[in-house]
Amino acid sequence: MGEGVDPTKMCQTLVDKVAQSKQLMAITDPDLLILFEDWFEELEEEIVLLHRRHGPFDAMGLARKIGLSPRGATFLLSKLQREGKL
């Protein structure tokens, strides 16, 4: 049979992700979510400010500058660009 997507495996992956999300929600304190959201907003503001002062950063440069993982920096740069903040 040719290459393709296995629908059974795809459905199982989706079910696993939903279960994992429910588990995380069950142990998450609403106060912690608020703190995380505040931190995330401050981080975005810091990136926008750095961008204005020093020009654009690539993900690796931003990751080094503010102590994020390259993956996290890539996510934030993409998000801010989509939102028109950069």
The shape is flat
Order of helices and strands: HHHH
Indicate the CATH architecture of the domain at 29-86.
Orthogonal Bundle
CATH topology of the domain at 29-86: Arc Repressor Mutant, subunit A
Major pleated sheet: none
Proportion of strand residues: under 5%
In summary, what is this structure?
The chain has 86 residues and is an all-alpha fold. 78% of the residues lie in helices and 0% in strands.
Topology overview:
Blueprint: H1 7-27, H2 30-54, H3 59-66, H4 70-82
Helix pairs in contact: 3-4
What does this protein structure show overall?
- There is one protein chain.
- The chain has 86 residues and is mostly helical.
- The protein has a domain at 29-86: Arc Repressor Mutant, subunit A, CATH 1.10.10.
- It is 78% helix and 0% strand.
- The protein contains 4 helices and no strands.
- It has helices spanning 7-27, 30-54, 59-66, 70-82.
- Helix 3 (59-66) crosses helix 4.
- It starts with 6 loop residues before the first helix and ends with a helix.
